[in-house]
Specification:
Blueprint lengths: L9 E8 L2 E15 L4 E7 L4 E5 L2 E5 L4 H15 L4 E6 L4 H6 L7 E6 L2 H10 L1 H4 L8 E5 L2 H7 L4 E7 L15 H10 E13 L6 H11 L4 E9 L4 E9 L9 H11 L9 H7 L4 H9 L16 E5 L3
Parallel strand pairs: 6-7, 6-9, 7-8, 9-10
Antiparallel strand pairs: 1-2, 1-13, 2-3, 3-4, 4-5, 10-12, 11-12
Helix pairs in contact: 5-6, 7-10, 8-9
The structure holds spermidine.
């Protein structure tokens, strides 16, 4: 019987759809507490290293986070070409800031996260993720509300990265997946700035959120590209939406991208290079069709509601 091989001490059951659960086998629970904003766990998994889980939703794990954080950050940086000032909204683990700091052109990365307890716990328990990014002299950390920070800084940022937890109804982030929020982002960006948002799963059964987010970003930015990366611990390929007033070259020349990365970054990529970027921008037909078919726009009055939380349980042993 297959179950006889399973050796986890705890199981974290994350609902992917109302019909599917991703059961992550855990060997240790390092942190489990209710912060002012959400339920937080930092766990050690049997297969994928350590992971941050918020409100029962998987955020990232040391074993495959590069498949999320590299495609989150670098396509936007590459579309810009020479980013100096980067704003990260959310991103508690510090890995998004870590990626932005790979760019030698970057003079300042400001990260705004509402939950100081999450940031502190990640700083302490997930050094593999931030790799000292919080201590870099170019990093500024603000514990506060992204909406307020956006209002203060008009036209200031070359790249804004929205690395928020999934928009579950009870969670702290769902309002930040709306047109109203994207309009604030646009005002905070420099005229030729680039915005990217983690934009939900693109598995066929769950693609609605992604399609609607892309349509919502399109109401604010003239050029938008949807792309996705396969992150095994998410249980679905994960989507991103990038918006800008710049032209986006959907068939970038891999050699030119490799030259740009060699010249302007400190390197060390595990996922991204010129060929990978070219592949990322070739969006599968079912994703394009889903985006074309759904014209719902998320607003503060009608924000997204993303399905599912999860629960960690001991195995009784
Ligand atoms: N940093 C936020 C990333 C959120 C990704 N959520 C993944 C859920 C997997 N089912």
């Amino acid at each position: 019987m297959p179950g006889a091989e399973l050796r986890a001490d705890y199981w974290l059951n994350e609902y992917i759809t109302p019909w599917d659960i991703y059961q992550h086998g855990l060997t240790r629970i390092l942190v489990q507490k209710r912060t002012r904003f959400q339920e937080m766990s930092i766990v050690e998994t049997g297969a994928y290293g350590k992971a941050l889980v918020l409100d029962g939703k998987w955020q990232s794990s040391t074993g495959d986070e590069f498949l999320y954080h590299e495609p989150l950050v670098h396509p936007a940086m590459l579309v810009h070409g020479s980013p100096r000032r980067v704003l990260v909204l959310g991103g508690g683990e510090g890995a998004t800031v870590r990626e932005a700091l790979r760019w030698k052109t970057v003079e300042k990365v400001t990260m705004v996260d509402i939950d100081g307890e999450v940031v502190e716990a990640c700083r302490e328990h997930l050094p593999e993720m931030h790799q000292g990014a919080f201590d870099d002299p170019r990093t500024e950390l603000i514990i506060g509300d992204a909406l307020e920070v956006l209002d203060q800084d008009e036209g200031a940022w070359d790249v804004i990265v929205s690395d928020l937890s999934d928009p579950i109804e009870e969670g702290p982030s769902y309002k930040l997946f709306t047109r109203d929020y994207f309009e604030k982002v646009r005002r905070a960006l420099a005229k030729d700035g680039v915005f990217v948002v983690q934009a939900g799963p693109v598995a066929p059964a769950e693609i609605r959120l992604h399609a609607r987010l892309v349509r919502t970003v399109r109401t604010v930015f003239p050029n938008v590209v949807s792309y996705a990366s396969h992150v095994p611990t998410y249980g679905s390929p994960w989507g991103f939406a990038l918006g800008t007033a710049r032209e986006i070259d959907l068939r970038p020349d891999p050699e030119a991208i490799d030259r740009l990365l060699a010249e302007k970054t400190t390197g060390g990529f595990r996922f991204l290079d010129g060929r990978t970027l070219l592949g990322l921008f070739q969006v599968p037909k079912y994703v394009r069709d889903a985006i074309d078919a759904d014209d719902t726009i998320y607003t503060m009055d009608e924000p997204p509601t993303f399905f599912g939380t999860g629960v960690a349980e001991g195995n009784g042993g």
